[in-house]
Amino acid sequence: MSQKINNGDACGLPSRQPEVSPFSKKFSTGELPVEPNRYHYVWAKFCPWATPAAIMIDYTGLNRVISKFATYPLRHSGIDDDWFFGRDAADEDPVLHTTRLSENYKKAVPNFSARPTVPALIDLTTGGVVNDSSRDIMFELGGQWKAFFSEKVPDVYPDDLKDEIDSMNTRIITDITSVPGKISDADSQTEYEILFNQYFDRLEKLDQRLADRRFLMGDHITLPDFWLVVSLIRFDVVFYFKSKLNKKRLDDFPNLWRYAKACYQIPAFKQNSDFMAIKQHFFQVSDDPVTSIDRVIPGGPDLRRWEE
């Protein structure tokens, strides 16, 4: 996912796909049929790119018609170019019955030799990956699968707010979600400072926006909320330290902190937020023996405050 490979730590800015990719099929173009119980979503509990759709699937009720399963959060010892489905090499995804994600890429493209990435949407009729773009999957599920949303849930991608939602998504992904991955690739003080300021300038604006709003678009959750909350949950836990995004902590933004805690109490958000998996991936990275302080999992911050 990251354009620079860092000891198996591969949850950063997704690399650009070629214009024609076998993993970019969409429902909106007719390439994929909207058919319940045909698709399976592979994600990772640590990943800020894969987690938004996992939350949305549960929140909207799409989990009744689209199954999902998370990869093991650590790289297996000596293997930094694949995602396994469990601690042991023989552990399987219970739906796909494969042990590593590359098997499902190869079911779509037999000569596939690149690094498999999460998220990955898989067509169960073939077992092959059909889309691995986090943005595409969010937009496609949010826009093309409304007929299968729970009747109790307001539309997360309403037509009358589509342009505004698309714009807000872009701002969050550009200025928040992608910045930690870009910082890991920065090779100068100037580049780091530009990204640092970009990140905190956007947080300040979002904090102001939420001063008189319950959610980003108003009174109910829409697509940008999934993107933002996922990154906020990882801010103090990982990015404050690892990415040197340390100008302020999340609770220094009163409206963002209130908003993030309120969203976290919603079952779909809480049950897809695994703080230990997040720490394991970003700090420990792999299940090789820990022999240096940079791979030690931090004891803090105190996560009990998310329940207050």
UniProtKB/TrEMBL annotation:
Extent of the signal sequence: none
Superkingdom of origin: Bacteria
GO annotations of cellular component type: cytoplasm
SUPFAM superfamilies: GST C-terminal domain-like (SSF47616)
Assigned EC number: 1.8.-.-
Oxidoreductase found in the keyword field: yes
Cross-referenced Gene3D superfamilies: 1.20.1050.10, Glutaredoxin
Residue segments, region Disordered: 1-28
Residue ranges constituting the GST C-terminal domain according to the UniProt record: 158-293
GO MF annotation terms: glutathione transferase activity; oxidoreductase activity
Pfam families: GST_C_2
Keywords, ordered alphabetically: Oxidoreductase, Transferase
Coiled coil location: none
Protein name (record): Glutathione S-transferase
Organism: Lentilactobacillus parabuchneri
Phylogenetic classification of the source organism: Bacteria, Bacillati, Bacillota, Bacilli, Lactobacillales
